[in-house]
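#dry-run=false #mode=assembly
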Amino acid sequence: MLKYVLQRIVLMFFTLLIILSMCFILVRLLPPVKLPQGDPHTAAIELQRELLGYNKPLLVQLGIFYKNIFLKWEWGVSDKLYLGQKVWPIFIEKLPATAIVNLYSILLSIPIGIIFGIVAALKKNSWLDYTISTSTMVVISVPSFVYAFLIQFFFSYKLDIFPFQMKEGTDFFTWDMFVSMLPAVLSLSFGVIAGFTRTTRAELSEVLTSEFMLLARTKGLTRAQATVRHALKNCMVVIVPAIFGEFIGIMSGSLIIEQIFAVPGVGGLYLNSINGRDYPMFMLLTSFYTTIGLAAGIIVDISYGFIDPRIRMGSRK
Amino acid sequence: MKKLITLLLTVVLAASCFFGCQGKKPSSSTSDSTSVDQPTTGDSSSSDDSSSSSSSEDQLPDLPEYSEPEEGVYTYQDSVSMLSSSWNRLTYQTTDQAYPLDFMSSGLYSFFFNDDFSGYEIVPEMAAEMPVDVTEAVKTADTENKYGIPEGATEGYAYEIALNPAVKFHTGKLINATTWVESMKLMLDPALANYRGPDYFSGDFVIANASKVYNANTATVYESVTAAGYKNNAEALAAGAVLCVDMWNFWGLEGCVDESGNECPQWVPVTDTTLYRDLAVAEGESGDWVSAAMIYGAYSGYLDVGGGYDAYCAVKIDNEHFGYKWSDGVGLYAKDDYTLVLVLEKQLAGFNLLYNLSGSWVVDVEAYRASLTPIEGTNAYSSTYGTSVETSYSYGPYKLVKYQKDKFMRFERNENWWGYTDGKHEYVDPVDGETYDMYMTDVIETRVVAEATTRKMMFMKGLLMGYGLQSEDYDSLRGSEYAYATPSETIFFFIFNGHLEAIRERESAEDFDQAQYDLETMTLTTFRKAVALVYDREKFASTISPSRSGGYGLIGEAYLYDPENGLRYRDTDQAKKALCEFYSVDVSKYDSLDEAVDSITGYDPAKAKELFTEAFEEALEKGYITDANNDGKCDQTIEIEYASSATSSFITKTLEYLNLELSKVLEGTPFEGKISFYESAPYGDAWSDKIREGMSDTVLGGWSGSALNPFSLSDLYVNPAKAYDAKWFDATKVELTIEVAPTKGAEKEAVTMTLKQWSDALNGTEVTTDAGTFNFGEASADVNTRLDILSAIEVTVLNTYDYIPMLQDGSLALLSKQVYYVVEEYNPVMGRGGITYLKYNYDDKAWADYVASQGGTLQY
Amino acid sequence: MNNTTNNKLNNIPKNLFVFANDGERIHDEKLKTKARGFLKDAFYRFKKNKSSVIAAFIIIFLVLFAIFSPVISPYTLQDKNITEVFFYEAPPFIESIAEKNLGIFDGGAKRDSINDFTYNKYMAIYKETGLNPVISIDKTITTKVIYRGQEREEHYYSLTNNAYYEKGAEFRTMTVEEFYKIQQYSIENNIQVILPYVHKNDIKKIDDADIWYKVTDNKGTPQLKDVNGDGVKDVNDYVPAYSTAKDKSGVDNSVPLKRVAGDDGSYIYSYAKGSAVHVRVNYYNYYTYLYGHEPMYIFGTTEGGYCLFEAIGQGARFSLIFAVIVASINMFLGIIYGSIEGYFGGTTDMVMERISDILSGVPTMVVVTLFQLHLAQKVGPVPSFLFAYIMTGWIGMASLTRKQFYRFKGQEYVLASRTLGARDTRIMFKHIFPNSLGTIITSCALVIPGVIGSETTLTYLGIIDLSKVTGTSLGVLMQQGQNSMSTAPHSMIFPALYFALLMIAFNLFGNGLRDAFNPSTRGEEG
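#status=ok
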């Protein structure tokens, strides 16, 4: 097992390098945001690009980029979005808001999702099962910005329970801040709850009809005991990696929810850096998220092995 | 005090895909750079004025975490769709970024309302007195003619400005003449290449030798043949100048390499024969290897002055000012601690001078230098000045006390601001005759509210000061007493492609089937006249964009030709006659000129049908289209491409409207069902080049900015570097005869010059023609003559039918009941006084109680 | 034990027994029941599962709706005779049902915070056009507020208005022939299309077609006949400001005109503007004149002013077809890639996994923008949009198949078939693949609606816009609906409802299919 993990880590490093280089060149292929003809500031922009060395051949720039990040952990200065400020500190300053909102929404939605899933699976084909699965379907199908708006309209405008937007300030753990975060947390969790309900229900109902459950019951276990001890463990194969996936996803904010509730997170950073051709910011974000994505891939694959010994990811034919 | 920053007169046509910032408010804090905006239904996200101050008595170490609305404190709640992340006075780029500067800076001079609030007056602010003209003294003292003040000049080139000694930063540090000079040194420092540098040498306000010091580090400069003082390319070559061709933009060779693999530079001398591999051409075909000499050989005619492509040919000049130092003669120095001397390269006087001096370029020089750090692996510098509370140095009524990136800003009163105590910042309320202090607002809180629906909900709950009406709010809220209309200067017109060569090139492409499609007909004037008559402008406005109205001329309603008395260009007889002439209205048939102008609709379906038939015959003769089965119907369909930067519901609705109206008028004409508009793939920022190059056919755009000097607009339509139809309408060749007084007070006589010469003369540059030298600048011609010229230029450009006017821009916004304006009427220069004159009905506590008493939701 | 009851059975006489088969040759008889193939059997099982059958019917209904909605609604998106778009984002309205004012299909739209001025204008519209814009006054609010320093009383209404009648009058410029044609139509059908003309200068230069009465200031406060002093202005006290400048009418005054009640023949109905005439039209009746029938929008109108009922049909058609194509391509690629990866494992899996990692690592946003900037013009928006989906769409399906393969690879029957010498491809596609078919089908059932869902988000982010190419799509409709949810909720509800129904149906249908195709996993609903 260890050999497989080591192999995967080394390979991950190479994949990362390939992806970063591709992104580096791809983003520079996007034509720089051009000021229209006749605008005197075009001269200033061209002068600045010359000084920043953007006119050098791409490969030379790539070399400088790698030298900077590996030797000096220097991610450079933002060109457009945060003029004149280092990119890394900005990212770190904005990350907590996204992470905390995502954390709350996961802590809220995973348990609820699993419970709904279990209830639906146990009471299969009953009216309860139908209501749960139909509402899950509706929740999955309607895009998230629809809930965000409905929550804001009813809870903040009509009933005045929540403020319209997340409160300003960095005191993330005070009561007022928590209340101001709830609309965003709720909007994010609808999707997650629905997802987990569906997966748990599918896995559990599949496992319930297998032979060893019959055996467990014949051995005299009560229905509850059999379900908890055997059935649930079996459908963990799918649920635990999904939970890992969610936790990994904590770092990436949802652009739309953060925009509607003014969460000062990293949600919109990615799209803005592409549209604004902010190369340093874009490279930092791409490296950060790609590393997390690849690391998550490894962890999830390994976790399969732990949960269900029979499955050996990567095992030969 | 009113913040009017330098008026940058270089104008650009740039379609910003969203109208994001609060509409063009007159008191925009930064250079009111003129640009074109593509119309959208985006609302102006907050009330139209914003700058205010606050001071809470006990200086709290940090903001109280959750402050209940306090008694006696007036807070101005503002919302923006994008919060500034860097408001560095020397490097900010957009008006959104300069938002905090509105509150944190003052200018040498300020604009206040006059006593009866009917107009304005200019008052010294950071200066102590009005500028004193010292052109003679400076000229005599300048023995080596460092400043290049022209011989004949007696006034308008050099000024002495006495500074107000009480002026200081919020930190208490005094601001004197050296601060002003050192700040300008930083602004123009060649090593920094600050974005705002060109504001001080590329507009009307040109500091002597500023561009020399700004470009001191660039070794070679490429100047156009005419700018370098030559008549045409041949003369330049004969004089031994190194003529170069722009390989990148003219031939698209950017990124191509020669045999030995080194990249093709942008400018290559025309005599250079090194061959570059043109990637756009397949291997082995002719033109796969091409050199500058070959290009110049084939296209020398086009590349010559007036050949239409002369912008791609330039003279390589070794920057003789290479290494130019500030001390070599930049027109700004300190005579003594509190007297500043300003020397200009271009004559400027009166209102325009004071308007330009109402801004400021002051920074805390020591702090700025400390914040400069070189960027790894480059020779550029980055500065954190103006990016956080600690790095913000205010010399305005308010200072920044709290900032959270992309989320929230809080400003409070700046106790060290001299304006609170100098007794000059108060006014008499015309309604109740009491005298009040300006800046009643104590605190300004600004939040990011991206979605319009959220803004509306927060406004209805009393959490925001203003809400710009969206099209769906119009019917119910237009009649509200709290809705204020703000006129804007922009006229949106359709730019029509007339670039025959480019169209032929497009038609020769393989995927263009000449039997089925045609584009050339678009270039016929009769065709364009017909299209112009298809649209009822008022109906177009009321259906597509209720906040706007029909537009008929090129210069919008909000343009003032005489800012001092607030007189509008559109109200002058010359402007009215110009419209009547263009829309061929026989004035004699109407009782008054006004009634004649009222009768203009620009909509005449019957005439349009005739013109379409006429255009059909003309196009048939010229072979643009065919009528094989001569059923009198055109075989080809004409698909007009709308150059869209990014798709939006506004563009989709507009194109549907255009096609519907067009199909109605085309019934019974040879083009029935054969002409339509379609939207292009999103071009992003490249849309303006597509139109210029004739690669795309039309767009709805309009110039905005420089609302106080309509005369500068003429340059936009005649200067090849700026005009959008430069490639097919050469204003430097078109002759125009106007009955005008050649010099002040002289008899009117017919003078003939080219359009470009008329526009340059109108804007103050001496123009010599074989009929003599003329200068119709502000200082050397009376207003009526200038109006005659401007209106004549407007009609001539309209008659090209390259620009078809459609919409006059405007916006409508609701103002919170918590506040009110001293004066309801909109003043073209002062607006409604902004935060300076904003008055409060309720303080924060009373307002919170009032909203609660209304059950949490307000009615407007 | 009492076994007496059945002692009769003990001594049955021998001769009662008869040989079942006395000497004929025994051979198989032809099967009486028809042979039931795998598919037939699957269909039979599918029929048994009630919920998936209902789901199948729902899908059929939705598809039929998509096909036949243009037939039912009197409008089509590319309607040739639509000459003007009248109502943008107006609520559902059917004249016949509206008259019964049951509260539905009456074009009712919530209008709150209406002040006196606007309310009086609605009453003025009612008086002039005879169509009452106000369906019901839901709330009247009287509040005190400080206005410019002094306290005063203000009066507001919350109304439900008929968004169609609310438009009242509008200015239009038309040719003289058109004017005559409308007059003739009005007289024949006794319908007042053109209202008497009001010139701007007679109403203090206010540019508003709804103001037909004299006003005292440029804000529009109406001038009353006999000023009876009490605050409430009665619409009947308004003094009409109709223009009587016969010489300026620009038409032949002898031509008969459809005159309003109370017109003694002095009013003019048109004003000369150049060679055309400027008129005040009753917007609702002008619609009826142009279209030949009163407005009928079952689901209301879209942001572009088109019938939402028909737009959903059109949008659904495109979205479904597009989703099916994308889903099938993604599924096909994913399954092939995933099965090879999952089955062979070891280094092939390692390499292939890395390739899919790289592909999913590359930011789709950049690639799509790049694709759009450089190639979209040549290839056209739909293929570039297709590319945006397929580039990474198949990876999800591939990892799913890979997981299933790993799951079943170790099962006994696979080992058994390998020992029997089956080739790899046979094992893969004969043994492992059918087993994993269940989960694949369930998830693929969700891929189709998933594609439509992500189309909405991509349109919202402005990365792609289908409406140019195909008129509209479900994603575009939902995105437009979101923009104006507070003012026009119908524009969001109907598309979202259609889409949710589609999702539910596809999911249940997917479960039904899985049970049908995979007897062993019966009962394990996805």
